[in-house]
């Protein structure tokens, strides 16, 4: 049977555009009631029965039958052995990628992840103390593909932040362990690792089981089950964002070879049938050329079936009136990845507000960002880039305000606070401030 990838052909000039566009975009884990119900049941079961439930779901969903949780833990020796056994070229690539990701996140920490403080003229100190989280859980997807790069993208910023313990979970369908994933866990310095996935792994990390330690925060991407589970455990633990099925939006002025753009659309479509690839372009003949390239290149792709399903079910080639209009529509979509495939990307970049990551120019394929450019590839999806940011060192830190009021400062602040406290009807607040005023007898700080 011949596989066909037919993304929807839309035009912003058509009267039906808004409705068709909305229908194409509309999807999120919480609109899929079947997934939601299943995830809710799994979370409740793991919370109640712990390891026993995790073992059952791992057998059911990943085809991995074992006698006890001990068999689902990867030892440090196993991680090290995997690193030593992979071909030298893979080891070098892994280490080169890790170096670039580390350099980027160290710069990120310097720019915005350090404690700071200042003093008022009267000596009062005000500031913010930044501390790393004690223990985090990192989700590394593993259902339809293996993601050693996601190990690096999660664990390295956690390390740079100074997190004490990094607990990794990764499903290994039918028990097939991916050597590169294990090697990446070794390179990135993961503390403990379990071969579990899906909602049951998220639940194990959030609630803790007899074997899996409860964590403070869960980060990392995953499929619709993982995204929904993370949303539901938020509050019990922190989460980074909703990083669900991958998305790419290519904003093209028609100057990049059509084959390059077709392959970039494939690159995210091949992740998942639910991934979304969209092209926005003001040149109709160029859109035809990209569709022709899709037809020609698809049969040779090993993951052609997933690509065809994703492009046909969720993809779109949109003809716009202008590049300006294309930028405006891109902002409405707020994609995970946005490629500005143009001879003059800096002309359009200032118009772009909402995207997880922006890739400028024809040579910046999104896939370079997935592996080794340096910035994080764990990014907000489903339009959440309107309010969320890429995974970063800041996700593994928290902040405490620091306040040290001097004796002189207390004289000024005490009067302001007391006035406002009486206004709120909170007498104890007011008195606590007033007792420190020199005007109150016998209450001066002893020297
Ligand atoms: N946004 C990002 O930063 C980013 C990065 C990498 C990957 N991704 C996305 O992550 C996803 C990875 O998905 P995946 O499936 O390959 O791996 P995954 O690890 O996310 O999901 C596999 C797990 O899903 C669960 N599952 C599958 N079918 C189920 C069912 N019918 N009922 C209950 N549970 C079920 C199983 O427990 C299985 O272990 C893709 O959508 C990819 O696009 C996103
Ligand atoms: N594109 C994914 C984020 O949506 C990340 C990734 C890992 N490997 C390949 N791609
Ligand atoms: Zn990718």
Automatic annotation (TrEMBL):
Q: Which GO terms describe its molecular function?
A: histidinol dehydrogenase activity
Q: How is the cofactor bound?
A: Binds 1 zinc ion per subunit.
Origin: domain of life: Bacteria
Name of encoding gene = hisD
- Which UniProt keyword terms apply here? Amino-acid biosynthesis, Histidine biosynthesis, Metal-binding, NAD, Oxidoreductase, Zinc
- What are its E.C. numbers? 1.1.1.23
Q: Which residues carry out catalysis?
A: 336 (proton acceptor), 337 (proton acceptor)
Per the UniProt record, the source organism is Polaromonas aquatica
Name of this chain's protein:
Histidinol dehydrogenase
Q: Which HAMAP family match?
A: HisD (MF_01024)
Its biological purpose is as follows: Catalyzes the sequential NAD-dependent oxidations of L-histidinol to L-histidinaldehyde and then to L-histidine.
Catalytic activity reported = L-histidinol + 2 NAD(+) + H2O = L-histidine + 2 NADH + 3 H(+)
